[in-house]
Amino acid sequence: MSDLPLIQADRAVPPPAATTSTGGRRRRLRLLSRTDRVVITLMVLVPLLLVTGFVWLPAAATVLLSGTNWDGIGPLNEIEFIGARNYSDVVNIYPPFVPAIQHNLLWLAALFVVATPFGMFLAVLLDKELRGSRFYQTALYLPVVLSLALIGFVWQLLYSRDQGLINAVFGSNIDWYGDSSVNIWAVMIASGWRHVGYIMLLYLAGLKGVDPSLREAAAVDGASESRTFFRVVFPVLRPINIIVLVVTVIESLRAFDLVWVVNKGRNGLELISALVTQNVVGEASRIGFGSALATIMLVVSLVFITIYLATVLRENRQ
Amino acid sequence: MSTATVTRRTEGGAEGPTRRKLTPLRLLLHGFLIAVALIWLFPIAWAVLTSLRSYEYTAANGYVSLGGWTLDNYVTAWQTAEFGKHFLNSVYITVPAVLLTLFLASCVAFVIARFSWKLNLVLLGIFTAANLLPQQALLIPLFRMFTEVPLPEFMSDSELLYDSYWGLILINVAFQCGFCVFVLSNYMKALPRDLYEAAMVDGASIWRQYWQVTMPLCRPALAALATLEVTWIYNEFFWATVLMRTGDKFPVTSSLNNLRGEFFTDNNLVSAGSVLVAIPTLVIFFMLQRHFVRGLTLGASKG
């Protein structure tokens, strides 16, 4: 999914603080007419209800359901609480669970160790106002505008066993998407292809916001370029670094579309998100399992979302 | 600022040493970047290339060859996959969803930026975080909810929120609002506050301040967000996959999955289909690149 706020990029440049005085609050409220107050309430309430009803309540319901034995079909009043049994079942008697956790971690590691640093590295190179920089940037973030589902199809042209380019060039006979010992790597390369451009863009915007006088000062002091980057620029970009880290974690948790178009997350491509979906819309609907898995995802992502919010909101207030 | 640096550097370079010394390094750098850029473009270029060749030719000569140029794949893909219908479905979902997202998000952002209530930060947090939750984690209750909420027949022939355009529009709006609230509230906070003082003196209501003062000034931000949101909602795959049932109603990105079977044996068709699906986003990207990049880096320019 591409809908992570990439915007944090701009956090490197603190926006001009809003000139407000908390003391004027009461006075200001009284200045508002009745209609104004109704309008303000509606302006906030309608979107808030939508987000609460479609995002936050379902999230809370997921957590609640994970402690019940609901089958997803029966009436809601027959729900029984069964404590942590779903969780122990998931861990003990659900074979795809362990591979899914492993794949999610592997996915995270691949993005974190390879794709993210590579994107950052490219951003640092492209920040040098090179000739042709526009072309390089465009080429790198072109994949960002494609959906992950579509990327699955585009890479099939390279990966397919009988008609794929890789096998044609190397004379191999591997089903890159189908063979459960390699397919996770194949989809991770495809997803990394997109992730690099995304991180490059985020980081480049952050770099552009770094006060040039910092670098000039370092240059005057005779610091080498790499030294300047690691000792001066990188620490200044701390908020962006945190955001890039969070974006990477959340992207790897949400990885779904790609494995779903390849084989619906089976046979070597198990991911938590795919297991949740299989348990709801698949042939065997096991709501308890699904909710327990979904809750695990929620908890992990909420940890990182909190870090993210703390970072951007702090930047925001400055 | 950059012009000054450039001039200074050229002047220094006239004598030679610093500029000369850098040249091999710079060449290496360009070589590296060109290589990376070409590798990055390759999968897309390959898809376009494959889509333009006939299956018979590539089956006989292999894919590492040249020849067999044809546009037939596009015709066949368009017809078998009924792309016309699916593109229209995407329009039905994307256009209202983007407009509604921008409208609702700008309302909230306006209140957050215009007033300095303590709750504003909480509000901002609620919206921004909602955009980051993994969608799959919400699926179970949402699925049940969608199959329970009735809609009148003139709105959806399923008579439910499930399997209706309305449901997809709402879920997309709810999910995308957070991002737009975050961007717009930042943008609006940077607008001069005297505007509102002046508007208040003129006796303008809150609604007029929002609609006639703030919104026109936010046009650049709205254009950038609209570009991004069109791309994202068009690219949205998950919700339509799980909250739709009737194949005819799928938007184009989610319909991809149903094509797998039909296209499976013919990569040239797959590539033609992929290119067709990519065209709207690529057109947006190349025509509105300025807005697209701006949306992603908004704020950096306003400092």
From TrEMBL, chain A:
It is found in: Cell membrane. Keywords: Cell membrane, Membrane, Transmembrane, Transmembrane helix, Transport. This is Sugar ABC transporter permease. Residues 101-308 form the ABC transmembrane type-1 domain. The chain crosses the membrane at residues 38-57, 105-126, 138-158, 184-207, 228-250, 287-313. SUPFAM superfamilies: MetI-like. Pfam families: BPD_transp_1. The keyword Nucleus does not apply. Gene3D superfamilies: MetI-like (1.10.3720.10). InterPro entries: ABC_transporter_permease (IPR051393), MetI-like (IPR000515), MetI-like_sf (IPR035906). The lineage of its organism: Bacteria, Bacillati, Actinomycetota, Actinomycetes, Micromonosporales. It is a multi-pass membrane protein. Belongs to the binding-protein-dependent transport system permease family. It comes from the Bacteria.
Automatic annotation (TrEMBL), chain B:
SUPFAM superfamilies: MetI-like (SSF161098). Keywords: Cell membrane, Membrane, Transmembrane, Transmembrane helix, Transport. PROSITE patterns: ABC_TM1. It is a multi-pass membrane protein. It comes from Micromonospora parastrephiae. Its main location: membrane. CDD domains: TM_PBP2. InterPro entries: MetI-like (IPR000515), MetI-like_sf (IPR035906). Belongs to the binding-protein-dependent transport system permease family. It is found in: Cell membrane. Residues 87-288 form the ABC transmembrane type-1 domain. The chain crosses the membrane at residues 27-49, 91-112, 119-144, 164-184, 217-234, 269-288. It comes from the Bacteria. This is Carbohydrate ABC transporter permease.
